[in-house]
UniProtKB/TrEMBL annotation:
May be a proton symporter involved in the uptake of osmolytes such as proline and glycine betaine. It is found in: Cell membrane. It holds the Pfam family MFS_1. PROSITE patterns: MFS, SUGAR_TRANSPORT_1. It comes from the Bacteria. Keywords: Cell membrane, Membrane, Symport, Transmembrane, Transmembrane helix, Transport. Its main location: membrane. Belongs to the major facilitator superfamily. Metabolite:H+ Symporter (MHS) family (TC 2.A.1.6) family. The chain crosses the membrane at residues 56-75, 81-104, 116-134, 140-159, 180-204, 216-235, 270-291, 306-324, 336-354, 360-377, 398-421, 427-447. This is Putative proline/betaine transporter. GO terms for cellular component: plasma membrane. Residues 1-37 are annotated as: Disordered. InterPro entries: H+-coupled_symporters, MFS, MFS_dom, MFS_trans_sf, Sugar_transporter_CS.
């Protein structure tokens, strides 16, 4: 990144000029709304959904197949130690995400949102495909988990640019009064990727024997990454960059060093954003990724039933997420985010206690409840974070805050939850971890300003 491009050239990175699709009304970066056609917005929503879906399907399959992966890559360990080692690799891959946030933020704020998103999906799909090709521990010994770690780091680097970039892209294209609804596409597509991963994992677990799963079955979902990634990449290259970014670049106002500017001028917003993300970081990975493992390994529910319960919860989550986006447009980001934190503080421990009943219907209803609670946070957070930072550092501010919090608390959540249960003997330990995360997020959001009614600005 030493050779920084001329910010005034950002708009010329694409062969099609911005003018046909965007008629600026009073300067979109300073409060005017870019007049974008409905057809363009539909293509933006579709591209953002599909691209993010592919990225997070790739990323989530690892979590859903953790028990099988532990047996393949750590066969000499006892089941719980193998699971801890598998989740440790999951957590380590998150350590690169803050670095990725800096790099992707720089690319997104200097060169363009579309360029960053198109590159990130190629890296993710390529890395995920390579996981399917790694021989197991029985074949190449210690090199198997080492190769897995290297590829997981590549996945973490790619994911660090996806969520932030897609959110900024949608918010900058959205009508001013619907930014929350448009940004909700990002967590909805993330959940859809998780849903497909859950369906495939559940189907394979049902149809294949344990030996078949450990031999070749676990590789099948990872093989889908290459064609899906190429499709997502193709769709993204057919879009122009956002009107506000193109306007800012044309006026020569892009930050030469966006990350440096972020820390110098917007450090307080950055700290509050890191705190606000905490509930999302822990809640997302505990409720939507770690839960099948928790139900099967800690509570003794069958693997098929565990995946089925999570799949049902994900379906309802996707529906709730758009409702939350609309609520945040109507009532404001802060009110909805505060409501999310309060519900987690009050209801999480009782909900996890009900999971321990072993009744499948109760487990499904509890997961639906937890998913609905999580949507209050997840459906609002993308627009909240994108609006917190000005256009010049929007991608960087979102990417750094989101990935720093996820690196410290999100990627480690399955490992910490498993470790807390192992050390305390209390299966409710993950619930208390969620309560602590909700409390910190509540404080951060309460100290932040409301952004839903304010225009997007360059500064």
């Amino acid at each position: 990144m030493s050779n920084e491009p001329n910010p005034t050239a950002a708009g010329t990175l694409h062969s099609t000029p911005a003018a046909p699709h965007t008629a600026m009304s009073g300067g979109s970066g300073r409060g005017g709304s870019p007049e974008v056609s409905k057809d363009t917005r539909r293509r933006v929503v579709a591209a953002s959904f599909i691209g993010n879906f592919v990225e997070w399907f790739d990323y989530a399959v690892y979590g859903y197949l953790a028990v099988t992966i532990a047996a393949v890559f750590f066969p000499e360990s006892d089941p719980q130690t193998g699971l801890l080692l598998t989740f440790a690799l999951f957590a380590i891959s998150f350590l690169v995400r803050p670095l990725g946030g800096f790099i992707w933020g720089h690319i997104g704020d200097r060169v363009g949102r579309r360029t960053a998103l198109s590159l990130s999906i190629l890296i993710m799909s390529g890395a995920t495909f390579c996981i399917a090709l790694i021989p197991g521990y029985d074949t190449i010994g210690i090199w198997a988990p080492i190769l897995l770690l290297i590829i997981r780091v590549a996945q973490g680097f790619s994911a660090s640019g996806e969520y932030a970039g897609a959110s900024a892209f949608l918010v900058e294209y959205a009508p001013a009064n619907k930014r929350g609804l448009y940004a909700a596409v990002v967590p909805a597509s993330t959940a859809a990727g998780l849903l497909l991963g859950s369906l495939l994992a559940g189907l394979l677990t049902t149809l294949l024997s344990t030996d078949a799963m450990q031999s070749w079955g676990w590789r099948l979902p990872f093989l889908l990454a290459a064609p899906m990634g190429l499709i997502g990449r193709y769709i993204r290259t057919k879009l122009e960059d956002t009107p506000v970014f193109l306007e800012m670049a044309a006026e020569g106002e892009a930050a030469k060093a966006p990350v440096s500017s972020l820390f110098r001028k917007h450090w307080r917003r950055l700290l509050l954003a890191v705190g606000a993300v905490l509930l999302n970081a822990v809640g997302f990975y505990v409720i939507l990724s770690y839960m099948p493992t928790y139900l099967s390994s800690e509570l003794g529910l069958g693997a098929t039933e565990s995946f089925l319960a999570t799949t049902i919860a994900l379906l309802t989550y996707i529906g709730f997420i758009f409702l939350t986006g609309m609520l945040s447009d109507r009532y404001g980001r802060k009110k909805v985010l505060i409501a999310a934190s309060v519900t987690f503080i009050v209801l999480t421990v009782p909900a996890f206690a009900l999971l321990g009943t072993g009744n499948f219907l109760v487990i499904v209803l509890v997961q639906i409840l937890l998913g609905a609670m999580l949507t209050l946070n997840d459906g609002t957070l993308p627009s909240f974070l994108a609006e917190m930072f000005p256009t010049r550092v929007r991608y960087s501010g979102f990417a750094v805050s989101f990935n720093l919090s996820n690196a410290l608390f999100g990627g480690t959540a399955p490992f910490v939850a498993t470790l807390l249960i192992a050390t305390t003997g209390n299966v409710l330990a993950p619930a208390w971890y969620l309560v602590a995360a909700a409390l910190i997020s509540l404080i951060a959001v309460a100290l932040s300003r409301e952004t839903s009614k304010e225009p997007l600005s360059h500064e």
